[in-house]
Amino acid sequence: MATKGLLMVHTGHGKGKTTAALGLAFRALGHRLPVCIIQFIKGTWKYGELTAAERFGDLLEFHVAGKGFIWKSKDPASDRQAAREGWELARSRIAAGKHHLIILDEFTYALKYGMVDEEEVLAVLRHKPEALHVLITGRDAPPALIELADLVTEMRAVKHPLKAGIKAQKGIEF
Amino acid sequence: MATKGLLMVHTGHGKGKTTAALGLAFRALGHRLPVCIIQFIKGTWKYGELTAAERFGDLLEFHVAGKGFIWKSKDPASDRQAAREGWELARSRIAAGKHHLIILDEFTYALKYGMVDEEEVLAVLRHKPEALHVLITGRDAPPALIELADLVTEMRAVKHPLKAGIKAQKGIEF
């Protein structure tokens, strides 16, 4: 059996896409393997994971490309600019191949809304360094990305508490 | 909208059930909220997540109830004993209500194989402390558990690299 860097996708409308990415990041960090996370949508630095991430110092590189949820945006041009800058950063980090794992969190939205060029993204992923693992999260992963990926998990919502009138809670949702 | 401790289930045959649990644990730890993890099946302490977990010291309580994968076991009586001890520990920690989040990782197997009494488990979960979050992971969550849960995510395997002849890799699979 071969050892190779995987292209992974967490998609679907259920919970756990970003949370599982975070777990994967911590698993790698626990092995003292360097991780780069670029968050494309959620821009709040209050999240518990960021506080936790600080404990790993130089091993973790964390960037936020977006400033809020795209569907609440009042400034699409600014969102597009943020997405493009995030992708430029991702492309340079992928080419550098210095990380064990690069996570492009909520990146599918940038693809879905045409903020970045899908063909270009696929070409970069197709020619990534052999040993590098890349994980892309977000709803509605485009078919060509799923086709290219080595591992795709769909997080399917069977039950969701927000639909049952329970609000988002610290240490669980964020 | 109400604030309450959730009963959460990560099930399905895809990847990410335990990894998302781990992410949730780190998110809570980042908020300085105490977490208890009881791992029912995988018993190896080499995993990256355990090394990462050490950084949180007293905030994280970690136990391993099982010693290996159940389907490779040559000693079912020992497995059953381990599962029961794990559940007794879980029950006491749930009753104590001192944690923000208690994770019963791969606990569905103990239910599926009748190693613990499902009715008793459901009763304990039904009467857990109001503020406590409990997360149960594993394939084939029983219908009554899904019925009782507030949040259920099915991790569905769309593509899996092990099926494509790529072996499990450090910092990704473990």
State the major sheet of chain A. 6 strands, parallel
CATH-assigned fold name of chain A? Rossmann fold
Which CATH top level class of chain A fits?
Alpha Beta
Spans of chain A of at least 5 consecutive residues whose pLDDT stays below 50 are none
* Helix proportion range of chain A: 25-40%
Please count the helical segments of chain A.
Answer: 6
- In CATH, the architecture of chain A is 3-Layer(aba) Sandwich
Beta fraction of the residues of chain A? 15-25%
Basic shape of chain A: globular
Largest sheet, spatial ordering of strands of chain A? 3-2-4-5-1-6
Give the helices and strands of chain A as they follow along the chain: EHEHEHEHHEHE
* Largest interface by Cβ-Cβ < 8 Å: A-B, 62 and 63 residues
Give the assembly state of these chains.
Answer: homodimer
Q: Count the E strands of chain A.
A: 6
Class by alpha and beta content of chain A: alpha/beta
Whole-number count of domains of chain A: 1
**Cα distance, first to last residue of chain A?**
38 Å
| Computed CA radius of gyration of chain A, to the nearest angstrom | 16 Å
Question: What does the model show?
Answer:
Chain A has 174 residues and is of the alpha/beta class. Chain A has one domain (10-159): P-loop containing nucleotide triphosphate hydrolases (Rossmann fold, 3-Layer(aba) Sandwich). Chain A contains six helices and six strands, in the order βαβαβαβααβαβ. Chain A has helices at residues 17-30, 48-53, 76-96, 107-112, 118-126, 143-148; strands spanning 7-11, 35-39, 60-64, 101-105, 133-137, 151-159. At the A-B interface, β1, α1, α2 and β6 of A face β1, α1, α2 and β6 of B. β6 of chain A pairs antiparallel with β6 of chain B.
